[in-house]
Amino acid sequence: MSRPQPEALIDDPLGGTVRCTVLPSGLRVVTDAVPAMRSASVGAWIGVGTRDETPELAGAAHFLEHLLFKGTAKRTAAEISEAIDAVGGDSNAYTARDHTCFYERVLADDLALAVDVLGDSVSSSLIADKDVETERGVILEELAAAADDPGDVVYENFNRAVFGDGPMGRDIGGTADSVRAMTAEQIRRFYRTHYLPSNLVVCAAGGVEHDEVVKLVREAFAPLDAGVAIPSQRQRPEPGLPERRKMLTVERQDTEQAHLVVGCPTMSRHDDRTRALDLLDSVLGSGMSSRLFQSIREERGLAYTVSSSISYFAETGSFSVYVGCGPDNVAQVRELIFAEFARVVEHGITESELLRAKKMYEAGVMFGTEDTGTRMNWMGREQLLYGDLTSIAEDLERTEAVTLEQVRAVAADILSQPMTTAAVGPFDQKDFA
C-alpha cells in the first residue's frame, strides 16, 4: 500500500489543503484544512470488516464497533457520550465488509476534545465482560429488526447468492448463533489482531490545522503502540468467493410489496473500468431521469422505488438494481430490467446520457466539498482502501475522460452475464421459472 508524503494538495473551490503524515508506528494522519469552515469532522478508519472473520467469529467486527463506545480506563460509556453531547457534537460508527469507521463532528474549537475521545475509545477500550453481555443483547435485537425488514433481507440474500457463504456473503452483523456463542476473550483477541497502527487512518476535515491534528492524534492513539505482541502487519484472509454463484433466491414473506434485486458481480475497486461502470450505473438507475426509473415507474406505473447501486471491494464488486413493487408486477418488472440491460449491451448509451451522468457526478462531488463529514469520508476511503490521495480536480478529470466506447465496453462485459435474482414477497421460487 502506498503512503503519500506530507505534501499539500490545494485544488477545490473552498481552498482546502490536504496533507498526510505517516507516524513512525505506521498510523496515517490525513487532514483537509478549510479555514473558512467553523466545524470539523474527524474519523478513525480501520481496515477490518466482515471479510476478516472466520465462521465462528461472524459479526465480530460489528460487535467490536459497539463495544468501543462502552468504556475505557479514562471514561465510562456515559462519559464518552456526554463529552461529545456537551459540545453539541455528533458521534457514530459503522461496519462494512472490508473496513470499520468511527467518526465525530464538532465545532472546530472543540476538535482537541473530539480527537481525544475518539482516540481513547478506539485505542483503549476495556471490552469488559459485562459490556459484552449487554451489547450481545443489543446486537441480537438489531439482527431481529433487520430480519423483519424485507428490504434488508432481500439484499442479504442477494449478497449471499453472489458471494457465497464465505465472509463476503455473510451478514455484516453475523448470525444470532454466532453472536450468542462469541466470547469476550475472542472479541478481545480480534481487537488486538486488527486494531493496529499500520491498519489505521485518522482523518480530519474542516477548520483544522494539520500539525496540530498530528500532535493530537499522536497523543490520543498512543496506547495502540503499547503491548502489541503480534506483528504490526497482518495478512488478510482470502475472500472465499464461490466458483459458481446462485442464480435465484426467493424467500416467501406475506408482505404487501415485493422486494426484488437483480444483479451480478463486477470488477474490483482497483480496476480502471470502475469510472465507466459508475457512469453506466447513473444512466440506468440513478435519479428520476434514469432509464429504469422512467421505464418501470414513469411509463408503466409498476413500482414506487427503482434504483441501482454498485459496491466495490479489493478483489470483486457487485452491481444491482432494486425495485419495490406489487407482487403481481414482479415478473414484468424483472423482464423490463433484463430488456434494458440487453439494450445497453447492444447499443450503449447516448452522448446526452453520458454528459448528464458526468454532470451528476460532478455536482455530487462539489456538493460534498461543502460538508466536513463528506470530505473526511472521501479521504478515509481514499487512503485506507486505495492507499492514495486523489485530488478533487484529478478525480473529476478521470471521470470527464470516460468515453462512450468505454461505457459500452464495460456494459458488454458486465451486463451480458447471467443475472442473479433475489426476491422477497408472497411467492415461491416456482413463480420465477
Automatic annotation (TrEMBL):
InterPro entries: Metalloenz_LuxS/M16, MPP/UQCRC_Complex, Pept_M16_N, Pept_M16_Zn_BS, Peptidase_M16_C. GO terms for biological process: proteolysis. It comes from the Bacteria. PROSITE patterns: INSULINASE. It comes from Glycomyces buryatensis. Transmembrane segments: none annotated. Residues 28-175 form the Peptidase M16 N-terminal domain. Belongs to the peptidase M16 family. PANTHER family: METALLOPROTEASE (PTHR11851), MITOCHONDRIAL-PROCESSING PEPTIDASE SUBUNIT ALPHA (PTHR11851:SF49). SUPFAM superfamilies: LuxS/MPP-like metallohydrolase (SSF63411). This is Insulinase family protein. Residues 182-360 form the Peptidase M16 C-terminal domain. One of its GO terms (molecular function) is metalloendopeptidase activity. Coiled coil: none annotated.
